[in-house]
Amino acid sequence: LVIVLDFGGQYNQLIARRVRECGVYCVVLPYTTPVAELKAMNPIGFIFTGGPNSVYEETAPRVDSAVFSLDVPVLGICYGCQLMAHSLGGQVTAAREDSAREYGKTETFYDAGCRLFKGLPEQGVSWMSHGDYMARVPEGFTLTAHSAACPNVAIADEARGFYGVQFHPEVGHTENGVAMIRNFLYEVCGAAGDWTMEDYMKTSIRAIREKVGDGKVLLALSGGVDSSVCAALLAEAIGKQLTCVFVDHGLMRKDEGDEVESIFAQRSANFIRVDAETRFLIRLAGVDEPERKRKIIGEEFIRVFEEEARKIGAVDFLAQGTIYPDVIESGAGDAAVIKSHHNVGGLPDYVDFKEIIEPLRLLFKDEVRQLGRELGLPEYLVMRQPFPGPGLAIRVIGDLTKEKLDTLREADFIFRDEIARAGLDKGINQYFAVLTNTRSVGVMGDGRTYDYTLALRGVTTSDFMTADWARIPYEVLDRVSVRIVNEVAGINRIVYDITSKPPATIEWE
Ligand code: XMP
């Protein structure tokens, strides 16, 4: 077990994911976890995450320095690195604008003699995001990497197994970042690397059967990857004891509700689809603020689900497709809230159940997909691109109407269709259309039009925490544009979003 100690960074869960990808089990715990508790878990290593604070601030999150006396290796990342330096007697200060303050891709030079960089190229791009600087490193440490602007990008105390890096090895933009984490796990911590998905599936089916006994389980199925895999896992484990309720809020993409029904009506003996489009539209009428939309959809979803659950009557368990990032995001740390994701935290009040069951609670997204494959779900479902819980409501900018949703649905369908036809669907991790609230003047035939602008968004990313805009060939964009303005009424202008994340987010709202 490796413990990732969370100091509230935006990338904290990515670190844990990378560790698991390396075949090593890990958990993320808040930095406030008492050292005695950490010690009792018998970890082979610690990773301290980044975080938004500066260690020299009085209110900055600290760690009990007893953690450095457990004889367990530590890898500190960004804030975690500065914290380690600060705790062990080094000095961290704010970097001056023109010196060691770095953001984004940075050419970095590594000392191959350091165990962290063993066997890796001595030069490469790393992803930086820090405004602080280690002015003095603690005793026993040496400098093991540098960039043009910063002499101390990485520090190491090989004897004690303490390593610190200012950059983010967990982020895809850092070349060989995962290999560095792997080096820490295998070269420094001596990990065995025995975490596999097949074991996990068997163990969790056994655990579900044991826990549920002959009880009844109720699940809200959205048709997304998580709830689908959750449904498939439960169906495999307990068969007819499972009831799936699919709340169709009318904010899905074209034909999607029917697809969900056709897959799960077969797999689950008790599958119920509720058509709730009208009530969602009524609640959302005139609402243009994104967080408000999310809140309303989350609440209404629960109300509809509760009504259905009342009809079903008492059940023993309520199942949720909560996955590990949700667990970490909604409590363990204190990362700044950029957007509230509606599928967490909202528990139905009036459903008559005894206990919650969350069979995917410890899995990251790729692990959930892998589990779906083990369960025999079709590849297109397992690899379905992410779709936000609030659906198309947050892809119609400003207030919603059924008409705007239908316009968006048609345009989005054409975009996805052309991407698939061009064979680009595997290479682009998420792509969709956004109906903006900007109208502009156009000309069609001999007439003036004053219609909406549609934005197309396509991103490549491995983690959805950072993303680059997809370089879709002009010919494909051209086909999409021509088809949409000709086939979809109400749109006379099409733009392509060329911002990465950060500074933009993937969705527009
Ligand atoms: P952003 O826009 O924050 O999106 O860069 C990152 C990923 O999260 C998805 N997303 C959501 N998913 N409920 C969800 O279940 C939400 O409210 C929500 N908002 C964004 C988004 O599609 C992208 O994959």
TrEMBL record:
Q: Which residues form the active site?
A: C78, H168, E170
Reactions catalysed, semicolon-separated, are: XMP + L-glutamine + ATP + H2O = GMP + L-glutamate + AMP + diphosphate + 2 H(+)
What's the name of the protein? GMP synthase [glutamine-hydrolyzing]
Question: Which superkingdom heads the taxonomic lineage of this protein's source?
Answer: Bacteria
What GO terms describe the biological role, i.e. biological process, of this protein? asparagine biosynthetic process
Q: Which organism is it from?
A: Lawsonibacter faecis
Among Pfam families, the record links this protein to:
Asn_synthase (PF00733), GATase (PF00117), GMP_synt_C (PF00958)
Q: Where does ATP bind?
A: S222, G223, G224, V225, D226, S227, S228
Task: Check the record and name the PANTHER family matching this protein.
Answer: GMP SYNTHASE [GLUTAMINE-HYDROLYZING] (PTHR11922:SF2), GMP SYNTHASE-RELATED (PTHR11922)
| EC number assigned by the record | 6.3.5.2
One GO cellular component term noted in the UniProt record for this chain: cytosol
GO molecular-function annotation terms?
A: asparagine synthase (glutamine-hydrolyzing) activity; ATP binding; GMP synthase activity
**Record-linked Gene3D superfamilies:** 3.30.300.10, 3.40.50.880, HUPs
Q: Enumerate the UniProt keywords alphabetically.
A: ATP-binding, Glutamine amidotransferase, GMP biosynthesis, Ligase, Nucleotide-binding, Purine biosynthesis
HAMAP family xrefs: GMP_synthase (MF_00344)
